[in-house]
Amino acid sequence: MRRMNTGLIKLLLAAGFLLAAPVQASAAKIVVDAGHGGSDPGAVGVNGLYEKNVNISVARKLRDLLTEQGYDVTLTRDSDDYISLSDRVAMTNKEKPDLFVSVHANSHTNANASGSLVLYYDKDFPQASYPSSEEMAALTPQSKRLASLVQQYMVAKTGFADNGLVPSAAYVIRMGQVPSILVETAFLSNASDAARLADDSVRQKLADGIAKGVAAYLPLTLPGGFSDIAGHWARDAIVRLKEKGLVEGDGGAYRPDKPMTRAEWLTIADRLFSFGDKLKTPSGTTGQTTVTGQVYQDLPKSHWAYGTFQNAIRLGYISGYEDGSLRPDQPVTRSEVAVLLERMTDGSAQGSWTKTADFADVPATYWAAGSIYRLKQKGIMNGVTDKTFAPAKNMTRAEMAAMVDRLLAQNDKAGRAVQTDGSGKPAAVPNTGKPANR
Ligand SMILES: [Zn+2]
């Protein structure tokens, strides 16, 4: 990004953007579930191996590895006992962990089936007879991300065939309240897999791979240094913005779910689009940072974002409300962000548009409909679901981070900096399947 300097950091510090309030840091807690047990052996291998024994062996190794790294780990069973599926979920809900990993081994009537896969509950593949908990449906992106990381590391570590992820309505990953996966390590019905599952060093590799996936999903220390974004859906975007110097923390919190104020949003936008540069006249004289005329009672010169607001007003990005206020410290809504972003990138927010999504709450007559559907088409803003955009909802700091991250990614892809002169538009890229903007 161009125009990156410590000025922003100071400004953000002055703004209280970097929240200094202490945040309760809780140890990362994980529940590991060894499938089957006691009277329930699970699958029985072609070599006579019982699934329940493979499962608890890998689960214990996984617990030991994660505990060594500083995670707080609980096993649903640490003995050869039968535990019902509902008891496993009840135990997990009581523990309130950050995530849940169930360890199993697979079996298939086709003896050629081999390799690893990871199951997770996906709200886009519901099974009518097996409804999930409300929490689990909402946690689809988190569970999927965890599943993907675990599968990736497990396969890399063991060399088992990569069968990818499978949306599933298995009870333990459908009824809980935290991101949950069920790992199918390999096939006991396959001679080669079964022989490897009997090997203690292979079980160790499985545990190691799963642990690495868990740690990638829920790192104990983050590059961003924020204490409150582990496991958050916008974590990667926030970390990338941190690395670019767009947001800062001093061992503190990011507060991803806090609404972003109009002043905070304009400050970020100023960093991206360099209001001061845009105000430069062709002859090279710099535009003034104050405007004469309209005075906003709620924007005194002492306000930390005074200069940014004045520049934004001069550029025509914002104007006051009908009552003569500017409301710098009021949360900014998703619609306002859409319209402002378009003004800053395209110079206007008035182009033609078509309904590029099925947002029931953004009818054609809605004042910001054009901006919302154009930005949706460009892949810069998403709905909170496929069917709703929540236009009047306050934009959270996490949503802002995700949106700016997409904007920067598109500009990186286009091999140029964010347009600062209104002469072009960010290039559209295909939907990457990243979490919706919420
Ligand atoms: Zn099983």
From TrEMBL:
Residue ranges occupied by any SLH domain in the UniProt entry: 221-283, 292-353, 355-418
PROSITE patterns linked:
SLH (PS51272)
Record region (Disordered): 414-438
Query: CDD domains this protein is in?
Result: MurNAc-LAA
User: Which InterPro entries does the protein's record reference?
Assistant: MurNAc-LAA_cat, N-acetylmuramoyl_amidase_3, SLH_dom
In alphabetical order, the GO MF annotations are: N-acetylmuramoyl-L-alanine amidase activity
Does the record's keyword annotation contain NAD?
no
Query: Which keywords has UniProt assigned to this entry?
Result: Hydrolase, Signal
Please give the superkingdom of this protein's source: Bacteria
This protein's record includes keyword Hydrolase: yes
- What's the protein name? N-acetylmuramoyl-L-alanine amidase
Q: What is its EC number?
A: 3.5.1.28
Please state the span of the N-terminal signal peptide per the UniProt entry. 1-20
